[in-house]
Sequence to fold (807 residues):
Amino acid sequence: MTELVVGPFNRVEGDLEVHLTVRDGRVAEARVNSPLYRGFERMLDGKDPRDALTITPRICGICSISQSAAAARALAAAQGLTPAPMGEITAALIHAVENAADHLTHFNLFFMPDFARPAYRGRVWHDRAVARFTAMEGSAARQAVEARAALMHILGLLAGKWPHTLAIQPGGVTKTPTARDIVRIDTSLRAFRRYLEEVLFGAPVEEFAALATPAALAGWSRGDAGLFCEVAADLALDRIGAGPGRYLSYGAYPLPRGECGFRGGLWQDGALAHVDPARIAEDLSHAWMLGPSAHPHDGATLPDEDMRDGAYSWCKAPRYGGQVVETGALARQVTDGHPLALGFAAAGGGGVLGRVAGRLLELARTQLFMEDCLASIDPAERFMARGPIPAEGQGAGLVEAARGALGHWLTIEKGRIARYQIIAPTTWNFSPRDAGGVPGALEAALVGAEVGEGEVTPLTVQHIVRSFDPCMVCTVH
Amino acid sequence: MRVIWLQAAGCGGCTMSLLCAEDPNVLDLLAGAGITLAWHPALSVETGAEARAILERAASGEEVLDVLCVEGSVTRGPKGTGRYHILSGTGQPMLRWITALAARARHVVAVGSCAAYGGVTSAGGNPSDAVGLQYEGAHLGGALPASFRSGSGLPVINVAGCPTHPDWVTETLLMLAAGTLGADSLDGYARPRFYADHLVHHACPKNEFYEYKASARNLSEIGCMMEHLGCVGTQAVGDCNIRPWNGNGSCTRGGYPCINCTAPEFEEPRHAFTETPKIAGIPVGLPSDMPKAWFMALASLSKAATPDRIGRNATADRIRVPPTLRKPKP
Fold:
C-alpha cells in the first residue's frame, strides 16, 4: 500500500491537493483537499447588499460573470424585482460568452495537454497530440486563445470588460446596446462559429450538436474533437472516472416568461425531477469549518483555525437530499434532455469521456444559443428595471456556471447583508466526505484508477480530476 | 528571461485576463520576446512532483529565476501561520514559498491589486489576514518587508488592477526583458508609470457630461457617474479608456462606475461602490490635482450652463438628442 500526495495540481483553476491510497496498482481511496480559504461570505457581512455585485465576481476570475449573475438574481429575488426582458436576454448572452470561453480554455489549455506527454509516445495519435496540444506551444493552444480573445470582444461591448464586470444588475444590464453594437457582436459570433467549424469540430456546429448517441460521437473524426474521440477510444476514457450517476442543474440562462436556455433538474435512474432547493444542506464533518450541517439560508462560514484532525479540506460538503450529486456541462445537457448526454447518463455517465463530450456538445449548442439571444435583442426596448433594496429580505440566486450549479443565498436585515452563503459547482463535485463517511463525487470517481509502476503523479488520476473542469477558487471562496 | 508564476490567495482573474492579450496572442508575444514561463499554474504541463521540483530548484538557487510573478494576496492566518493557503503538495504555506523565491529572484512582480496591496481578499474584516507582497493596503511592508529589494535592486513591481489589463502585465515583462524598466519607471505605489501616469478619466466617453456635471442618477443612464454613482475615474490611475479592454470596453464604457481598482484599499471605499458619498447633498471627493474651491466654482457654473441636449441625454439610457447640425452658409 502506498500513500501519494498530488500537488500542486495545476491546469485546474486555483490550488488543489489530492491524497491517494494506492493498493495493487489502483487507487483504493482518495481524499480531496481544497487548500485555500479566503472567506468571501464573511467579508460581505454588514455590507450594503449592492456591494455583493462588486465583491462576489472577484471570488473567481474564470467564473466571474456566473458569480455576478448569481448575486444579481439573489438581490432581485430579495427585492421582488423582475428584470427588464431585454436586460435578461442580454445578461444571458454575456453569461453564455463566458461559459463558451471557459469550455474552450478547459479543452485546449487544461485538459488536452496531458495527451502530449512523453508517456503516450508510440500511440498512433501521439504525434498529432504533440503538435496540437503541447502546453503553451501547440498550434491548438494558440488558435484557441486567439478565438477566445476575439469572442470576448462581445464582453467589451456589452459588459465593459472581462473578468469582473458590474454590467449585470438585478434589473437587467447597465449598457443599452445600439444597432451598431448588434452588428459588431454578430460579426464576433460569426468569427467564433468559423473557428468552431474549421478547427474544433471540422463541421457545422449544427452537425455536432445533432449527435444523438455515444456511438455516433465515437465515430466523429473531424477537427480537434475528432482527435479527442480517437484518444478517448484508444485509452478507454469512458471506463475511468465514473460519477455518482445523479446530475444536478439549476437550469442555465434564465429568460423572460420563466424560460431558460438549458432546462434544469435532478436526473437519477432515468428520471428527471424538479430541483427543490430546500433539500440542499452543507455538511461540515470533514471540513475545517465549525457548526452544524445546514441549509445555506441558515448556514455560516466559521473556519476552524486549529485545522482539526479528521477534517482535511476548507471545502464544505453539500448534499442534495443527503446524497452526492454531480454538476457541470454534462449534467446540464442531461437535464435539458439532449439525447447524446442522456445516452451517456443511461450508460453510467461515460466517465472522463462523458464529461468532456458534454462540454464539447454544450459548446456547439451554446454557439446556437448565443446567436438566438442576439437575434432576439431589440435595441429599442428598455434594458433595465429598477426597484429599491428592501430593509429586510431574503433571496436565492441559482445559476449555471461553466462548471455547474452555482447558488448564492442572501439575507438582508436593516438594509445590510446579514448572511451570505455560496455553494459553487466544484464545492459539489470536489466535496470531502460527509458525516456518513460518503466520499464526494471526485473522491469516488478516483477509486479504481490505475497507478502505473513508479508513478507519483498518476496520469489516469490527472485525466479524471481535469475531466470535472474544477474551479478551486470558487470551491471554498 | 525565465519566469515562475505563483497563484496565491486571489481569483486567478489576472491570468484569465492575460489570456485576452491580442496582436499577437499572449503565447506568441512571450515566446517572441524570449520570455519563458518556467512554471505557471494554469498553463504549464508540469503537475505534482514535476512542479515541486521546478519550484525547489529555483528556491535553492540551483536554477536561475529572472522574474517571480505572484498573483493573489498572501494569507497570514490563521494565527499568523499562513496555513489558510498551503501550496498544495508541499505542506508549506504559500507565504513561505513566496519569501524563499523572492529572495532568489532578479525581479518580483505583483500581478493585480491583491498581490500588490491585499486587494479584495483583504476586504471586510480580512478573514484570512491577507496582505500584498510589499504593502498592507497603502502601508509599505507586507509579506515582504518595506526594505525588500529583488536582485535587480528594485522593490516589488506592483502591476495593480482588479483585474490587470493584459497589456499592463505583458508590457511590464517586455520592459524588464528589454532592461528599460527602472526605479524611475514606478510611481509612489510602485506601479509602472506607463499606465499609472494616466487617469481612467482620460478619454472616458462621458467626458462631455463631466464637463457640465450632467449626471446619471441610476445605472443604465448615460450621463457622468461621478456625482451620484460612485465613479472615481477622475482620481483613479489607469489608461483604461485610452487603451480599452476586450476590444473596445472599459468600466465607464460598460455603463458602470470606475471603482479605483488600481489603488491600495479600493476594496473598502467606506460607502457602497455604486453610490457617491455626499455631505449636505454635495459629493465628497475631488478630481486629482484640482483645488476644491475652483472645482466647486467651476462645477456650479458649468452645471448652470448645461446645454439641453447634454442634460436630457444624461438621464436617458441612450442618446435621445443628437448634436445640432451646423449647416454651411449658402
Remarks:
- The two ends of chain A are 34 Å apart (CA to CA).
- The domain at 2-476 of chain A is CATH 1.10.645.10 (Cytochrome-c3 Hydrogenase; chain B).
- Chain A touches chain B through 90 residues (CB under 8 Å).
- Chain A has a mean pLDDT of 98.
